[in-house]
Amino acid sequence: MVRRNDYLERPLPACLAGEEGWVVNREAGKTDSCQPPEIDRNRRARKRFNLIYLPHKAAGVLDSLLSRTNLSTSFTCQTSWQGSHQLKDKPAHSHTPILLSLFLFASATSLSAESWLERGKRLNSRKLTREEAKDLDKKDVRDTRNRLHIRRIKPADKTVDWNTDPTAIPALLYQIHKRTGLPVHMDNEGLDVSKDEIYENLVIYLTAHHSWSFNEKETENLSKWLKRGGTLLLDDCYNKGSPFADSVGPEVGKMIPSSAPIMLLKTDKRVKDCFKMIYPMIDWPGERLEAGRTWQYFVLDERPAVFFSPNDDGCGWEISTPPTASNPIGEGIGHGGDNQKREQFYQWLANWMMFVHTH
C-alpha cells in the first residue's frame, strides 16, 4: 500500500510529462512511471486484469489527488503485458468507484488553461525577502545533521585560554573527511555550553594551558547533555602535567557525581575498539614512550562519556601551511611535533571520532 508521505516525498512519474497515457491497475500497491502497454488496446485483457486508460493530464490530476488524500491508495502502473500477466484477480478496493469518479471529473476540469493545482501553486508562491533568504542561509550553515562535527567550548571564565589552538579543529575535520569520505560540518566559533545550542552537538572539546572551571549553569547543561548521549573531549595543551589536568577530576565530578578516571587501555572491553576503527594497527596512546601518555575516560550510564588526553593533541592537529599534494597533512606549528608524530595524532582522532559515533 502507498501511504501519503511516500507520495509527498516522491517526484511525479515521468510518463506524466509525455503525450502517452497512464495504465492504472485498481488492485495493488503503488504508482510508478510507465508507458501504456499494448494490453490497454485489448478489451478482453482490460476486463480480465481490471485496467483502465487515462489521458496524461487526467493521470497528473490522479497523482495530485493521491498525494493529498489520507486514504491508502489501491492503484499501480503496469509497464508491460508480462508485468500485468502475473497479477491474480482480486476484488477492487471499496474506494475505487469513488476515487475514479473524482479522477475523471478532475481530468475534465484540468483541460482548462490553468488547472486548480497549477493555480494553487501560483497563489501560494511568493518571493523571499532578503532577510528571509539570509535566515535560510544561516540555518543551512548551522545544519549539522548527518555530518561529523566537533565544537570548541568557550567557558564563561575569562581566564581560560580556550582559543589556544585556532586551526586545530578545521584541520582535524579536513583530515577526517579526506580519510573517511564522510561529510563534515565546520564551526570554529566558541560554544557557550550554558545555552541550548549545546544540544545541537554530539562531540565538544576543551583545551587550555591553565586551570579551568564551569559555572553552575554550564555544569547543569553539560550534565544534561552528557546524559542525553553527548561526548566531551578534554585536552591538556601543556603536555607536561599542568593545572589543566588538575581541574579534570573535580570538574567532571560535578557533571558526573561519584565518577572516577579509568585508564584507556586496549585490554579494556568497554573501549577495545576506540583506536582501531580505521587504523587498527597503530600504537595506542601510552602504549610506547613515543606514543605519549595514556588517555583516561569517565563512565556515565555504562558508556564512556568524557575522555581526557594529557598529550596536547590539538597542537598536533594545528597547521601553519595548508595541505598540498606533496604534504597531505600540511606543515605543523613546530611544538606540535614532526609530521610523523602529527600523522599519529590524526590517526588517533579519526579512530576516536568513528568510535564515539558508533558506540
Summarize the structure.
The protein is built from 12 helices and 10 strands. It has 359 residues and is of the alpha/beta class.
In percent, how helical is the residue content? Answer: 25-40%
- Anisotropy-based shape: globular
- The CATH class of the largest domain is Alpha Beta
Order of helices and strands: HEHEHEHHHHEHEEHEHEEEHH
Mean pLDDT: 74
Structure description:
The protein has 359 residues and is α/β, with parallel strands linked by helices. The protein has two domains: 4-124, no CATH class; 136-358, 3-Layer(aba) Sandwich (Rossmann fold). It contains twelve helices and ten strands. It has helices at 4-8, 43-49, 56-66, 81-85, 96-109, 116-124, 130-141, 168-180, 216-227, 243-255, 313-317, 339-358; strands spanning 22-25, 51-54, 76-77, 151-153, 190-191, 203-208, 231-236, 262-263, 296-300, 303-309. Strand 6 (203-208), helix 9 (216-227) and strand 7 (231-236) form a beta-alpha-beta unit.
Topology diagram in text:
Elements: H1 4-8, E1 22-25, H2 43-49, E2 51-54, H3 56-66, E3 76-77, H4 81-85, H5 96-109, H6 116-124, H7 130-141, E4 151-153, H8 168-180, E5 190-191, E6 203-208, H9 216-227, E7 231-236, H10 243-255, E8 262-263, E9 296-300, E10 303-309, H11 313-317, H12 339-358
Parallel strand pairs: 4-5, 4-6, 6-7, 7-10
Antiparallel strand pairs: 1-2, 1-3, 8-9, 9-10
